[in-house]
């Protein structure tokens, strides 16, 4: 069977993608969102469109891909953007990438995402909006002479900072020769998923097109199977494939590969068929890889596997030959995310805990050595390993990194995790995150200015419900709650909390109390002068 047979039943979808690529060459920036369930062929469609476009394009595309990774509730800030910028640098050269920055301030901001661009220039103060502006400037400059095709895969796993950047970037599209493509699983967008609100905004833009990939019908399944086998598939054989695959192209391919072997009874068995055919050593290697994620760098994998009774290189070679994984860059990736998920689900609880701890230990060593980049990933593995103390310390590092990278949404998520873990860890561990109320107030503040006002209100109410708060602490949180409530229930509802904050600290002469009272009075005064306007949103974060 050929690895890349002709696409089946995707004529209209392919036309949309190739048109968007062609328009990028002519100077009209476009965004295409590929929506479809796991295994439906989003990556395959994109590969085919790029191959066709490149074959006849007047301007050869510069393709850069960012892969979102499932790290639980908190993703590493700008993770796919880092990889995308790194690939752009490799394609056009570091010199051109630096030149595209245009100013030392922009270059310093980009250096927080791409270490190769390090500079002695300090990062300018600001917020995540400045990161978006810096990325936009570079893309705009590079797109003057290159047709940039920027791909972000698996947006349903995107970290909050990346989603915020995508919202800004896709809405402005300041590029001359530019095509932006994103893919996501529609079935994973449950109620309250952060991507949903971003998609609503993007779909208002006429330059944004959503392509829905649906399951193949019976004729499509038969056609795909025939092309894979190099012969016509009979009606009875086709009917069995349709019933087992349910029209999902990935499952059709896996079922066809089984040949005359008995057809698996469930789709999970279909996914695991290749894995189950592995010998003990490569299967053990695949198990280790699955805990690391869809993609794992070779050095991280080797370190996590160290001390285990397996032959890593031989196991990797066998798994690649069997089509379970594939080499990618400086590491290995599962041929499909469904395989990684199925293998991970098959592991026993004790196996998962031990392997998560192995990965966490490897990544934590890098964090302790001064590289804060893996802090979020290390924290995610510590959480999965059920080590609250280590998870707290790693998240505290990730919080500081998010602040340096101006990743406000990620900072908010890290703050929430630290607050949730606060009472579960020792006082000596808490020192790494500073004082509780300072963390709580700033976290509520950053959640609010990120636009998630109701979430900020809920957190403020949870903090106010804690026992042992001082009068000043209570006033501080009442002030935060009032600011958040203004955006949901109106000025008067919010000002009730502001007045309560002022009342609590009235007459107290300690600096923190005076600071809270000063802010409360300023807000009350501003509202009294302009009663129809909301109190001004504080632009700078308090810490």
Mean pLDDT: 86
Count of helices? 26
Structural class: alpha/beta
Indicate the low-confidence ranges by residue numbers.
530-543
- Total strands: the figure is 8
Beta fraction: 5-15%
Oligomer: single chain
**Helicity range:** 55-70%
Question: Strands across the major sheet, in which order?
Answer: 2-3-4-1-5
Shape label: globular
Major sheet details: 5 strands, parallel
Radius of gyration over C-alpha positions, nearest whole angstrom = 26 Å
How far apart the termini lie comes to 60 Å
Describe the structure.
The chain is of the alpha/beta class and about 550 residues long. It is built from 26 helices and eight strands. It has helices at about 10-25, 40-55, 80-90, 95-100, 105-110, 130-140, 160-170, 195-200, 220-230, 235-245, 250-260, 265-275, 280-290, 300-305, 310-320, 335-345, 350-370, 375-385, 390-405, 410-420, 425-430, 435-450, 455-465, 470-490, 490-505, 510-530; strands at about 30-35, 60-65, 145-155, 180-185, 210, 295, 325-330, 330-335. Residues about 530-543 have low confidence and may be disordered. The chain has a five-stranded parallel β-sheet, with helices on both faces. It has a three-stranded antiparallel β-sheet with strand order 6-8-7. Strand 3 (about 145-155), helix 7 (about 160-170) and strand 4 form a beta-alpha-beta unit.
């Amino acid at each position: 069977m050929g690895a890349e047979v002709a696409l089946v039943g995707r004529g209209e979808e392919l036309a949309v993608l190739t048109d968007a690529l062609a328009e990028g060459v002519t100077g009209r920036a476009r965004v295409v969102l590929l929506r479809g369930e796991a295994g439906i062929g989003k990556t395959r469609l994109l590969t085919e469109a790029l191959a066709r476009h490149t074959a006849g394009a007047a301007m050869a595309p510069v393709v850069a891909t960012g892969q979102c990774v499932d790290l639980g509730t908190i993703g590493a800030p700008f993770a796919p953007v880092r990889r995308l910028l790194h690939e752009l640098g490799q394609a056009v050269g570091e010199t051109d990438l630096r030149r595209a920055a245009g100013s030392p301030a922009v270059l310093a901001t980009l250096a927080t995402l791409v270490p190769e661009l390090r500079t002695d220039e300090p990062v300018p103060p600001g917020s995540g909006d400045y990161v978006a502006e810096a990325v936009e400037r570079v893309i705009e400059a590079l797109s003057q002479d290159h047709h940039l095709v920027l791909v972000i895969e698996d947006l349903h796993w995107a970290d909050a900072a990346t989603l915020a950047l995508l919202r800004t970037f896709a809405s402005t599209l300041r590029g001359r020769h530019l095509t932006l493509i994103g893919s996501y699983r529609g079935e994973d967008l449950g109620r309250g998923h952060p991507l949903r609100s971003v998609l609503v905004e993007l779909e208002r833009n006429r330059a944004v097109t959503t392509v829905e990939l649906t399951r193949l019908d019976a004729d499509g399944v038969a056609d795909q199977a025939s092309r894979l086998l190099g012969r016509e598939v009979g009606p009875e054989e086709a009917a069995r494939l349709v019933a087992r695959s349910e029209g999902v192209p990935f499952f059709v391919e896996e079922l066809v590969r089984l040949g005359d072997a008995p057809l698996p009874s469930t789709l999970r068995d279909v996914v695991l068929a290749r894995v189950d055919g592995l010998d003990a050593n490569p299967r053990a290697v695949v198990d280790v890889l699955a805990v690391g994620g869809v993609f794992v760098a070779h050095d991280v994998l080797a370190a996590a596997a160290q001390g285990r009774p397996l032959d890593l290189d031989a196991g990797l070679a066998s798994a690649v030959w069997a089509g379970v994984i594939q080499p990618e860059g400086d590491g290995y990736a599962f041929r499909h995310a469904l395989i990684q998920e199925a293998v991970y689900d098959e592991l026993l609880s004790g196996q998962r805990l031990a392997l998560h701890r192995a990965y966490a230990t490897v990544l934590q060593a890098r964090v302790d050595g001064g590289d804060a980049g893996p802090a979020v990933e290390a924290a995610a593995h510590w959480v999965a390993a059920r080590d609250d103390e280590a998870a707290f310390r790693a998240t505290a590092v990730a919080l500081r990194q998010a602040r340096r990278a101006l990743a406000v949404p990620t900072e908010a998520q890290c703050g929430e995790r630290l607050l949730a873990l606060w009472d579960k860890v020792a006082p000596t561990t808490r020192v790494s995150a500073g004082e509780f109320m300072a963390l709580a107030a700033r976290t509520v503040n950053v959640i609010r200015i990120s636009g998630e006002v109701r979430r900020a209100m809920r957190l403020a109410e949870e903090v106010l419900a804690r026992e042992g708060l001082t009068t000043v602490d209570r006033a501080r949180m009442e002030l935060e709650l009032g600011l958040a409530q203004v955006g949901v229930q109106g000025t008067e509802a919010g000002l009730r909390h502001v007045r309560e904050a002022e009342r609590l600290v009235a007459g107290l002469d300690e600096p923190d109390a005076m600071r809270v009272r000063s802010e409360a009075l300023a807000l009350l005064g501003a509202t009294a002068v302009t009663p129809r306007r909301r109190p001004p949103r504080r632009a700078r974060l308090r810490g």
